[in-house]
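Forwarding the complex inputs:
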Amino acid sequence: QKEVEQDPGPLSVPEGAIVSLNCTYSNSAFQYFMWYRQYSRKGPELLMYTYSSGNKEDGRFTAQVDKSSKYISLFIRDSQPSDSATYLCAMRFDNAGNMLTFGGGTRLMVKP
Amino acid sequence: GAGVSQSPRYKVAKRGQDVALRCDPISGHVSLFWYQQALGQGPEFLTYFQNEAQLDKSGLPSDRFFAERPEGSVSTLKIQRTQQEDSAVYLCASSLNRGKHEKLFFGSGTQLSVL
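Prediction (whole assembly, two chains):
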């Protein structure tokens, strides 16, 4: 079993829908949680960064962390075709710098 | 440059060949990371440099993999005697390394295909 699990999708939604993406993890020592977006043939790009439990909002994106359940989520409001990409969750330990453990990614398709 | 640059963009190697993958990090970035991303999977950590010092190489899959960053800027990932299971995208990333909450910038990767 992988340390970080993520449904690979694909997830197909109509333009304007609210998208919910999730990851579960097994190691309770993870302290920092991130969401990356990766377009085809490109490197991952950081979207959201959260420390420990709680919510964080940035424009159309909201990240939630529930450490008691070892469950993190990313919500995208008013989804756009340009949001079509693979979304990777990532996490790290407190003193691990940027040595990240990634989920396998969820492919999202937003249809006009 | 404006971002992390990797070359070549694509590399095809015959099984048993040696390959060298290059990474030019963002100018002034102290930390440099290599990740391996298999098809349909998330990236997996390989190794980490702070300036020219390789501080962690725990993710390198075998002793056929070797990375260096001799002058603390450009880095090279070398794979000796390539095997089919080495086929993947190799991503390089860099960060400024000033504080804990620093952003990691990824290059577009080198796609390695071993035939």
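The mean pLDDT of chain A is 94.
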